[in-house]
UniProtKB/TrEMBL annotation:
<keyword id="KW-0804">Transcription</keyword>
<keyword id="KW-0805">Transcription regulation</keyword>
<dbReference type="Pfam" id="PF00126">
    <property type="entry name" value="HTH_1"/>
</dbReference>
<dbReference type="InterPro" id="IPR036390">
    <property type="entry name" value="WH_DNA-bd_sf"/>
</dbReference>
<dbReference type="InterPro" id="IPR036388">
    <property type="entry name" value="WH-like_DNA-bd_sf"/>
</dbReference>
<dbReference type="GO" id="GO:0003700">
    <property type="term" value="F:DNA-binding transcription factor activity"/>
</dbReference>
<protein>
    <submittedName>
        <fullName>LysR family transcriptional regulator</fullName>
    </submittedName>
</protein>
<dbReference type="GO" id="GO:0000976">
    <property type="term" value="F:transcription cis-regulatory region binding"/>
</dbReference>
<dbReference type="InterPro" id="IPR000847">
    <property type="entry name" value="LysR_HTH_N"/>
</dbReference>
<comment type="similarity">
    <text>Belongs to the LysR transcriptional regulatory family.</text>
</comment>
<dbReference type="InterPro" id="IPR005119">
    <property type="entry name" value="LysR_subst-bd"/>
</dbReference>
<dbReference type="Pfam" id="PF03466">
    <property type="entry name" value="LysR_substrate"/>
</dbReference>
<keyword id="KW-0238">DNA-binding</keyword>
<feature type="domain" description="HTH lysR-type">
    <location>
        <begin position="1"/>
        <end position="58"/>
    </location>
</feature>
Amino acid sequence: MNLEQMKYMIEIVKEGSITKAAEKLHLSASAISQSISQLEEELGLSLFLRSKKGMKPTKEGTLFISKSYDIVQKIHELHVDLESKKKGAAKELRIACTPTMTYVVFDAFLSLNNLYKDVTFIIEELDQEQILHKIKNEEVDLAFASYPQNELDSSTYENGIGYKFIFTDFLCVCMNKNSSNSKLQTITPKELENEKVVVYNSGYVQNINEKHLINKEFFITSNNVEVLKNAMIYGPAVSLVLNSFLKNTINVNSKELVTVPFKNPNFIFLDFWCLYPLAKGISNVAEAFESKVSELATK
């Protein structure tokens, strides 16, 4: 048993087959297959269920992979620590977030930038699908977004995604201050039936809208948050948003837009998480950033 075999196991589970894992690792499929066979022979265990649909870990394989992640993560942390001792070593923290979290993430950056002057912070706004893809491929170090917990549970070893709970938010309807519904204490799908709805162009967001709204014909679908905000200000249109989404923006602070809690029939709660590549873990800087985001998000 060796470190390379652990890395092979991790990639096979993430990619679903030896062929795809080999492409990712720039190795031949036969070399990886032979190495895994030797590992199974050494352990006296079958680590994978093999079928035409791909490869799934056995119970023993899942245990092996979970321990492999622990070891690979420690090796990565050691490598990072040693690299940081080199004079002039470059440091960067790559962060991704959904539009809902952009303002909070940027505020966290402003709070920590002077404290970590030797670190380059790179912040990217993505949708939930893109974030999962980038975390799986270790293209970002940290991400902030909302997901159902059962989806993250299934992604832990399958996609190599670690996660920590941050906070819970609830859905509201955002609209122009002069809308006939703006004075309501709460709002229901029936009261939105004839409204023009604008939606952020993400599968997750569209699923939420389709699940809770009667009117499923969306007026505008866009990745540009400013376009959606202007549609609500000048349209007028409405949008399902989270309570925290626009609270720090000038449009809400100046009362051009207002938010009203949404019920169907009860309040709709969504959990937000901090995600990270399981094989890399969370560095000290990343941990400080996550703590600051949690602090700001729950103010």
